[in-house]
Amino acid sequence: IGTAAPNFQAQNETVNRLIAAYEQIATRLHAQRKYAYIATITPFGNNSYDDGYYRENARQHVNSWIRSNTVFDCVLDFDATVRDPANMTRILPAYDVGDGLHMNPTGYGAIAASIPLDLFM
Q1: pLDDT tens sequence for the chain (121 residues)
Q2: How far apart are CA 30 and CA 97, in angstroms?
Q3: pTM of the entire structure?
């Protein structure tokens, strides 16, 4: 999403490729009788990838697919965990390392705390 051109065609192609790749990953894991987990894409507003529309639209589209897919065994909603309720395209300021893209230790701690430990049993 971040490296594709900020226009509808490039972002749409990226969305389609991501979803196809995710489906392939789940299929391959299931073929080996392994669980397949997936996590949503965290916000990246207010950084160099933020074009104000196309990339955020692509992120939202992929996250919508992730949340509603039927191929993965579990969805971890990292987006909901770290986003700012006042601006859902951005990381909560308390979790932002300062670049609008990466979490600080508190943010990564929140992500870790959001993962159900029974997934590892």
Answers
A1: 989 999 999 999 999 999 999 999 999 999 999 999 999 999 998 887 777 799 999 999 999 999 999 999 999 999 999 999 999 999 999 999 999 999 999 999 999 999 999 998 8
A2: 36
A3: 0.93
Other beta carbons within 10 Å of 59: 23
CA-to-CA dists, residue 48 to 6, 32, 51, 98, angstroms = 11, 39, 8, 12
| Residue among 29, 15, 116 at smallest CA distance from 65 | 15
**Cβ distance 63 to 55 under 8 Å?**
no
- In angstroms, rounded to a whole number, what is the distance separating the alpha carbons of residues 7 and 28? 32
CA distances from 97 to 54, 85, 91 (A): 24, 17, 9
